[in-house]
């Protein structure tokens, strides 16, 4: 069911369209409580966008938290079913510090998760739905896709020490190859091995060009097979809106395989983030694989346009001489014409309107119009 745009705010419009999209592909809605035991989050703080969690003590003495995340709850309650895939989507409020206000905020988050036996189709479907989700928000979007396995292989081949591994990955995330090479040289790593990161960065770009370069860089098994699978998945995505970018990095303690971020024009940061998190599943004693993404709808605020500086299209004034049925009839007619309307006995203070009408039993009189 399509919802008329004028009724809903941009965030609400997006939620209805996304829910319809996910249900079309067989994803069922996951509902959860506002609360979860704090222990779930404290054990996986680095998986969260923010490690600041609102806590309280329940009546039974347990330390509880207002949920800052949905994925952890889904993983906790998932079941390993050999050969099967569980497809879920969610539309939930999460509670965490907002980047804009630096204070706690209730944030609407929409996303989906695919858990179980993951093959190339399942992974490609999730990436395709991520792309379609961005397209529902803006036609001008970009989906950046990376592969943690291929990146990890390059870092391993360079031979950086465990103490500097995270620092090297941060350099990759910032696309700072100069500092990355300096870090390698400080450990006595040869310039030839250090240059592997530069070779990997040259693989960034459109999928067709990137894959040709990756096939040269990863020409030995089993990584040759991994590149082929990566290419098969990328072939399922829309041409022109997808880019391979190995600076997209998620925590390797949780993520493996494909990771991705989504952007739309007008918003400086990513509004969609996701990837394969088999490592998280294993940490939570699950045997299944998993991939999913979340959309941060609070970041759509930057796209919201003022509604022509009017609170309502039509202010309809009536008095005690007009019957309720008459008011109801006219209000319904105005609303069905595609205009917002409020019926009042007098003009509310500070309310702005596009047109002011006076209703009587015999007719409607236009009193004032604002351009």
Can you describe this structure?
This protein has 13 helices and 15 strands. It has helices at 10-24, 38-42, 71-77, 120-137, 148-158, 162-173, 177-186, 191-194, 196-201, 207-217, 223-234, 278-283, 324-336, and strands at 28-29, 35-37, 55-57, 63-66, 85-97, 104-116, 141-147, 242-244, 256-264, 272-276, 289-296, 312-317, 341-344, 353-359, 364-369. The chain has an 8-stranded mixed β-sheet, with helices on both faces. A 4-stranded mixed β-sheet has the order 13-12-14-15, covered by helices on one side. A hairpin with a 7-residue loop joins strand 9 (256-264) and strand 10. The longest helix is centred in the middle third of the chain and has 18 residues, at 120-137.
List the helices and strands and how they pair.
Layout: H1 10-24, E1 28-29, E2 35-37, H2 38-42, E3 55-57, E4 63-66, H3 71-77, E5 85-97, E6 104-116, H4 120-137, E7 141-147, H5 148-158, H6 162-173, H7 177-186, H8 191-194, H9 196-201, H10 207-217, H11 223-234, E8 242-244, E9 256-264, E10 272-276, H12 278-283, E11 289-296, E12 312-317, H13 324-336, E13 341-344, E14 353-359, E15 364-369
Parallel strand pairs: 1-5, 7-8, 12-13, 12-14
Antiparallel strand pairs: 2-4, 3-4, 5-6, 6-11, 7-9, 9-10, 10-11, 14-15
Helix pairs in contact: 1-4, 4-11, 6-7, 10-11
């Amino acid at each position: 069911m399509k919802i008329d745009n004028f009724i809903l705010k941009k965030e609400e419009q997006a939620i209805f369209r996304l829910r319809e999209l996910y249900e079309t592909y067989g994803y069922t809605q996951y509902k959860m409580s506002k609360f979860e035991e704090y222990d779930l989050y404290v054990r996986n703080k680095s998986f969260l966008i923010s490690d600041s969690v609102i806590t309280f003590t329940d009546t039974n003495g347990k330390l509880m938290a207002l949920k800052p995340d949905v994925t952890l709850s889904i993983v906790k309650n998932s079941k390993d079913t050999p050969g099967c895939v569980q497809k879920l989507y969610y539309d939930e409020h999460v509670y965490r510090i907002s980047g804009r206000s630096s204070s706690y905020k209730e944030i609407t988050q929409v996303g989906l998760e695919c858990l179980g036996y993951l093959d190339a189709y399942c992974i490609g479907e999730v990436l395709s739905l991520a792309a379609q989700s961005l397209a529902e928000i803006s036609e001008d979007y970009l989906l950046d896709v990376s592969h943690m396995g291929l990146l990890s292989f390059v870092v391993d081949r360079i031979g950086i020490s465990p103490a500097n591994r995270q620092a090297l990955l941060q350099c990759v995330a910032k696309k700072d190859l100069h500092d990355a090479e300096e870090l390698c040289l400080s450990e006595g790593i040869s310039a030839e091995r250090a240059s592997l990161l530069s070779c990997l960065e040259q693989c960034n770009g459109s999928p067709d060009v990137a894959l040709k370069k990756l096939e040269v860089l990863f020409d030995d098994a089993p990584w040759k097979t991994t590149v082929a699978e990566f290419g098969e998945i990328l072939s399922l995505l829309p041409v022109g809106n997808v880019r391979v970018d190995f600076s997209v990095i998620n925590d390797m303690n949780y993520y493996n395989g494909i990771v991705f971020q989504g952007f739309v024009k007008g918003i400086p940061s990513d509004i969609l983030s996701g990837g394969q998190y088999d490592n998280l599943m294993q940490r939570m004693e699950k045997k299944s694989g998993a991939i999913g993404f979340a959309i941060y709808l609070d970041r759509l605020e930057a796209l919201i346009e003022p509604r022509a500086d009017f609170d309502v299209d039509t202010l309809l004034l009536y008095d005690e001489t007009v019957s309720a049925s008459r008011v109801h009839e006219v209000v319904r007619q105005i609303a069905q014409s595609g205009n917002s309307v409020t019926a009042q006995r007098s003009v509310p203070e500070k309310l702005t309107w596009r047109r002011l009408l006076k209703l009587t039993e015999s007719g409607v009189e236009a009193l004032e119009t604002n351009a």
